[in-house]
Request: fold
Amino acid sequence: MSDRTLVVDCHCHAGRGDGLTGPWDTSAPLDAYLRRARAAGIDATVLFAPFCSDYAAANRVIGELVARHPDRFLGFAFVHPGRDRGRVAAMVEEAVRDLGLCGIKAHRHDGRLTREVCAAARRWRLPVLYDVMGDVAPVELFAAEYPDVPFVIPHLGSFADDWAAQRAFLDVLARHRNVYTDTSGVRRFDLLVEAVRRAGPHKVLFGSDGPWLHPGLELAKVRALGLDEDAAARVLGGNLLKLLCRVRKSPSDAVVPEGGEPPRPADPWHPVPP
Ligand SMILES: [Zn+2]
Reply:
């Protein structure tokens, strides 16, 4: 593996929540994460909020971090499919235009992914990182309904090691060209091996779920896959950066014509079978 391979962690939380249930809705401090990531050779990190009661405000915190350290951080906008209903488009527009964020994060714990969230992603060509919490079957539906939106389903579909859900997800990952996964928190190593083998190295993104999981430990799992240089470069950062290349920055560029079918993304690595 080349020393110059760009390593980008696609999944790390930052900021504060007010749930006080556990670290996931209370605090995501970056000090130890950044020290560990530096030691592990991680070049850049995608940040988004922890669970909290006001994602619009939390996204502004992420925007400030990205603005202060544009070479180190990228940011995704967290949206709540239920509580933010009716204002997702405005939140995402602010996130892209004013905060410089380049993706959407949503979580099944908050609510099922909605058409409103998918439409906002389509409008700005953003990837959606959506934790399905083992609820894998709907991926089939939104991936087919929004073929131009890339969906990154972290943890092979289950942070909780739900083996049956992860197995079911592998099939969806292999069949849908716009479905991706990240490596964060996956314990059953052979499922990661299978994900790369069946879906291809272009469908798997390195992520740590920092700061709560150790980014060096999570990166070691990816290195242990023993991928060739090209495949490793994709998983470690290339796949994410390719998704972000599509993101629209200007509002005039962001309108999908009414009733018009958006073009399918060009993906030379995963051609549609005849
Ligand atoms: Zn997470």
Remarks:
- Residues 257-274 have pLDDT under 50 and may be disordered.
- The radius of gyration is 17 Å.
- Residues 11, 13, 209 surround zinc ion (CB under 6 Å).
